[in-house]
Amino acid sequence: MAFALKRLFNLDNDDYQSEDAQQTTLLTNPKRIEHVLGRLCSGRVTINVRLPGCEKLFNSAVLEVDSGHHYLLLDELSPADGHKRIPKAAFIVVFARTNGVEVSFRTKVKKIDTAGRIATYRVDFPKEVNYLERRSTFRVPLSAAGAVQFHAKRQGAHRTLTGFLVDISRTGCSAILDYYADIPRGELIPTCSVHMPEGEHVFFSMDICSSWRVHHNNALRIGGKILMSDNRTRDNLQRIVAKLEREYRKRLTVA
After folding, report:
1. Counting beta carbons within 10 angstroms of the beta carbon of residue 43, is it exposed (0 to 12), middle (13 to 18) or buried (19 or more)?
2. Rounded CA separation 120/240 (Å)
3. Among 68, 197, 204, 222, which has the highest number of CB atoms less than 10 A from its own CB?
4. CA-to-CA distance for 241 and 169, rounded, in angstroms?
5. pLDDT of 162-214, one tens digit each?
6. How many Å apart are CA 61 and CA 49, to the nearest integer?
7. Given the DSSP bridges, would you call strands 16-17 and 24-27 parallel, antiparallel or unpaired?
């Protein structure tokens, strides 16, 4: 798994890696940093932001990564009081978790843009990024173009929620819904399904562990544990995940 994640983020000896069990890495190579932060951007990963003098964490997202002009563009902070508190020229700390990897870095706010409906923040491109592998089960990252469709029907609801998978493993997955819905952490969605381009599909229940609003397109990202009641469904999911893993590693080899 460590090898697969190393290939995923294209790490090499330009970056320092400690020898502890959690695979802590300090990224200093700008190209490697751009690649890691680019994954946060393309995957629409929710990030947490800590402001100076405030212990509370606020949610945001990386909207743009530009190493050439030395900046990142971040989405408006949520809850709303975060936007009121963020000062220009202040140092903030950013945390994110995706595919079992935790990323954190310190950066400086360069510009606050409130001209549009949603505020954005231009911050310095970080010189160092902390990278920590945690998840015991690797989740295969999937295309954000919607190649793997995701459907969910909540308890007592008539409307089916639609979206696409961001990642999946044999025990959990993340998905971005096409529109915002108020789905709290801890909710059990009894009927979910993923639909592969080749026509394969699998049904399961999902125990929601994370639920974050994506401000820039008013969508919702959810993640959670996959629950299945029978061995046949479990075997079907394992076969699909194994196929996705093979295809993913093949793409890495070609790249």
Report:
1. buried
2. 39
3. 222
4. 6
5. 999 999 998 899 999 998 999 988 899 999 999 887 788 899 999 998 888 88
6. 9
7. antiparallel
Which H or E run includes 131?
A: strand 129-133
Identify which of 3, 9, 2 has the alpha carbon closest to the alpha carbon of residue 255.
9
- Cβ distance 75 to 168 under 8 Å? no
Q: Render the burial of 134-149: b for 16+ CB within 10 Å, e for the rest.
A: ebeebbbbbeeeeebb
* Cis preceding-peptide flag for 79 (omega within 30 of 0): yes
Domains of the chain, CATH where assigned: 2-133 (2.30.110.10), 140-254 (2.40.10.220)
Phi, psi (rounded to 5 degrees) for 141:
-75, 140
Mean of the per-residue pLDDT values of the chain: 82
Which of 42, 79, 43 lies closest to 60, judged by CA?
79
The CA distances from residue 134 to 22, 81, 101, 104, in Å, are 6, 31, 6, 13
Higher pLDDT, 114 or 154: 154
Task: List the one residue out of 50, 79, 51, 74 whose CA is nearest residue 62.
Answer: 74
Backbone conformation region of residue 42, classed left if phi is above 0, alpha if psi is from -120 to 50, else beta: alpha
Identify whether the C-beta of residue 148 lies closer than 8 Å to the C-beta of residue 165: yes
Residue 56 has pLDDT above 50, yes or no: yes
